[in-house]
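Lab meeting, item 3. Inverse folding demo.
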């Protein structure tokens, strides 16, 4: 028997070793990982303690998708940004530009008790997050934080305009194109726009708007029994079209429920469903809302792993993979983080 070949990691060329470390630092957010018990960033954080070179190598992977599922997470991330400002002022080797690395951000409240915090406290942290959130191409946020974030952006825009001595505003630095909204309780429907200022600079940059629904009213659409116009008509009527001039698509994402499933198990323990996305062509809708080609029922069901275009303005996409849902405790953050809502 030939002796086993031993190879030490330290024997790898530096470039290859850094590639391995980057791969190890990636947060997969897999649906199979119970990261409510394990921090999905744990490996990357541990690697950051190895050396400054390793830290600088893995930080882009750590920051690619930022999931802030608690008020505590927003506070900690805001403090990390303030620390980077201090590093920049002292020209420390530990300084890292978060805005160049963050690509996707999730912000939400999962605990109803957190809603009792003062808006002023949350907005203070939100003000610190504005540069990073505006630089991220994709933002998912609940309606409570969205209202405060847009206020922070509008305040920043007002301050910027006041400093413009030539009274000629340069383009506001907004890279965000995809906005995903999730909501609970009284804010779970189209009326979230009642609490958002019209004419927002931030909303003007959005080209793709997605709402993560709790599933109510959509199983019948998923089965082709009712027209998608029925659950979407209030959304389309109350959409702030005037300040969303670049919007190209509006989508609603919900569990793809078959005609037969265990309702009791779904309520008590949750069930794994495919994820369905209903998308409306916004420019076509705005041309003539009255005669927009909503698909009429009955129409064929879209199967897992398929995309179907039911009319010039409406399409359905169903994921091949499944995600776990509970009727009363939806946890969209994990589904969004692993890309099942895209």
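The presenter then showed the designed sequence:
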């Amino acid at each position: 028997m030939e002796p086993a070949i031993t190879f030490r990691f330290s024997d790898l060329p530096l470039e290859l070793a850094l590639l391995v470390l980057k791969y190890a630092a990636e947060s997969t957010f897999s649906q199979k990982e119970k990261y409510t018990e394990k921090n999905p960033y744990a490996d990357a954080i541990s690697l950051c303690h190895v050396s400054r070179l390793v830290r600088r190598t893995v930080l882009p992977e750590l920051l690619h998708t930022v999931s802030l599922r608690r008020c505590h997470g927003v506070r900690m991330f805001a403090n990390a940004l303030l620390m980077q400002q201090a590093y920049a002022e002292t020209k420390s080797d530990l300084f890292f530009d978060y805005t160049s690395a963050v690509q996707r951000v999730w912000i939400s409240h999962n605990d109803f008790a957190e809603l009792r915090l003062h808006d002023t406290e949350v907005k203070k942290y939100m003000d610190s997050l504005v540069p990073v959130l505006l630089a991220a191409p994709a933002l998912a946020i609940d309606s409570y934080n969205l209202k405060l974030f847009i206020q922070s952006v509008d305040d920043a825009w007002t301050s910027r305009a006041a400093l413009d001595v030539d009274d000629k505003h340069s383009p506001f630095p907004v890279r965000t194109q995809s906005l995903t909204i999730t909501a609970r309780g009284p804010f779970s429907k189209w009326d979230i726009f009642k609490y958002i200022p019209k004419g927002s600079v931030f909303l003007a940059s959005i080209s793709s708007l997605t709402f993560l629904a709790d599933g109510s009213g959509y199983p019948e659409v998923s089965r082709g029994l009712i027209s998608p116009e029925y659950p979407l008509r209030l959304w389309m009527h109350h959409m702030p079209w005037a300040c969303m001039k670049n919007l190209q698509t509006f989508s609603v994402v919900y569990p793809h429920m078959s005609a037969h499933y265990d309702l009791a198990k779904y309520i008590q323990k949750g069930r794994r469903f495919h994820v369905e996305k209903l998308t409306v062509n916004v420019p076509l809708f705005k041309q003539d809302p009255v005669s927009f080609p909503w698909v009429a029922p009955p129409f064929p069901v879209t199967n897992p792993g398929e995309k179907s275009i039911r009319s010039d303005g409406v399409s359905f996409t169903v994921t091949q993979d499944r995600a776990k849902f509970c009727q009363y405790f939806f946890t969209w953050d994990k589904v969004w983080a692993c890309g099942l809502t895209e």
